[in-house]
């Protein structure tokens, strides 16, 4: 009897929350004719995001350093929107270097395509390795490319969004920006930095109807991923593999859908969703449903995480043993 009363109260509670959700969720934005600027748009997840944005009717600016790769991506993406009108343009700039040139080039790109409605910060790179083997310069490189590029691009675009009282900004972090992992010391730190930035900034810009989305992809099949596989410690590879390998299209579709809805977290896959709930901390709330789910699942996800942590420790122990055995037989 009491069980059924409790269950009924719980169901009513969930229904009330569900009805209240629209009160705190931002209004979805319309991508039709919107100007979407994508850093890192010439490759991998960024290029897949550009394709998806164009399919939904947006005009897209691709930003990266290498003009050859940009031109190649531009023609690929433009094929998706047959017609006379130019819907893809490129900007070649090193986002990590000099803010003034980023600002100038971004201003020029808005003369032709209009003010940026959605800025997606996807430019980034990973150089995995053990803490004491990664070149010291790579620690700075990760901060410059993964973090400072995002600061520069966002700084150049945000004033316009605040003035118009409309905008979406995406930071592409990583699951390695939610938990530190073997071999990702330099990379993880730069991706965690994005979270601090996103939470601070979201609080500042919410009154201007600007919404941030922080995306946490797992391993994703891209040229960047193929490159990092070459130097990745075996431990890092095995640990990352638990979360699966996603296609760039799959990741891009989820990020874009969450951006349109103004969700703060964008995660993919079961592990990704569990990890986001577990590590939601003090992050902004945009949906009561999401908040309820976080509250109800946090404890159980912590228990599950202990099993994962133990599994990761075993991987690391086994790899160490295997290496020592190999070195031992070499000496003999
Ligand atoms: N692939 C994966 O497994 C995962 C990736 N991520 C993150 O997603 C993002 C995209 O990754 P992915 O698609 O694999 O990467 P790719 O290496 O395939 O593409 C990276 C893009 O960023 C651009 N870029 C790099 N540095 C700069 C710079 N200084 N200034 C301007 N543009 C730059 C590159 O162009 P150019 O070199 O010409 O400048 C390219 O367009 C990254 O931030 C990555 O950390 C997160 C989780 C998993
Ligand atoms: C309830 C708790 C669930 C816990 C699940 C934990 C799963 C951890 C797997 C982490 C995978 C990290 C991939 C990083 C990808 C990346 O950023 C690089 N490829 C860089 O390009």
The CATH class turns out to be Alpha Beta
Share of residues in helices? 55-70%
Distance between the termini: 73 Å
Rg estimate, integer Å: 21 Å
CATH fold-level label: Rossmann fold
| Main β sheet profile | 7 strands, parallel
Which small-molecule ligands are present, each listed once?
Answer: NADPH dihydro-nicotinamide-adenine-dinucleotide phosphate, 3-Dehydrosphinganine
Main location: endoplasmic reticulum
EC number: 1.1.1.102
Subcellular location: Endoplasmic reticulum
Keywords: Endoplasmic reticulum, Lipid metabolism, Membrane, NADP, Nucleotide-binding, Oxidoreductase, Sphingolipid metabolism, Transmembrane, Transmembrane helix
Give a quick precis of the structure.
The chain has 332 residues and is α/β, with parallel strands linked by helices.
Question: How would you sum up this structure, described in words?
Answer:
- Belongs to the short-chain dehydrogenases/reductases (SDR) family.
- It holds the Pfam family adh_short.
- Residues 34-219 form the Ketoreductase domain.
- It comes from Aplysia californica (California sea hare).
- Its EC number is 1.1.1.102.
- By secondary structure, the protein is α/β, with parallel strands linked by helices.
- It has one domain (26-300): NAD(P)-binding Rossmann-like Domain (Rossmann fold, 3-Layer(aba) Sandwich), CATH 3.40.50.
- The chain contains 11 helices and 9 strands.
- The protein has helices at residues 2-24, 44-55, 67-78, 99-113, 136-164, 185-205, 223-229, 234-241, 248-260, 269-278, 288-331, and strands at residues 35-39, 59-64, 88-92, 118-121, 167-172, 210-216, 220-221, 246-247, 265-267.
- The strands form 2 sheets. The protein has a 7-stranded parallel sheet, with helices on both faces.
- Strand 5, helix 6 (185-205) and strand 6 form a beta-alpha-beta unit.
- Helix 8 packs antiparallel against helix 11.
- The termini are far apart.
- It binds NADPH dihydro-nicotinamide-adenine-dinucleotide phosphate and 3-Dehydrosphinganine.
- NADPH dihydro-nicotinamide-adenine-dinucleotide phosphate binds at residues 39-40, 42-46, 64-66, 69, 94-96, 122-126, 145-146, 149, 172, 174, 217, 219-220, 222-225.
